[in-house]
Each structure stands twice: as structure tokens, then as C-alpha cells.
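Q: Convert this sequence to C-alpha cells.
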Amino acid sequence: MKITHDDKTFTITGQQWAGTYPLDDLGKWLAFYRRQRADFPKAGAVYDATIAGLEALAQELQVSA
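A:
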């Protein structure tokens, strides 16, 4: 999992997919992945890297998420 950003967007790049979103939506996507982990516990740790990356980005940009 790789998460990069510029001044307006962030990009999440997985092994088989990538998506670019507005920085204003960072909190929304972090909440989405946290819900996925809670709603689908059988998925194990599949969401952990994405959540950790988004949390690190939120901390770096000093955004509440």
C-alpha cells in the first residue's frame, strides 16, 4: 500500500488498483476503511495498511480524521 499526495489530492495505490481523491475527503475515506474493518472482521488485517497510511497522512497534514 502506498499513499502519496499533492496540494489538492491524495492517491492510494494498492497491488491491483489505485484511486485519487480530494484532500477534503481524507476523513471520509479514513472512516470508510475503519468501517470496512469493523464490518468485515473475517478480512483480517487487509485494511490495516490503508488505515495506517491514511492516519499518517492526516497527522502529517494536521487534519482531524
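DSSP finds two helices and three strands in the chain.
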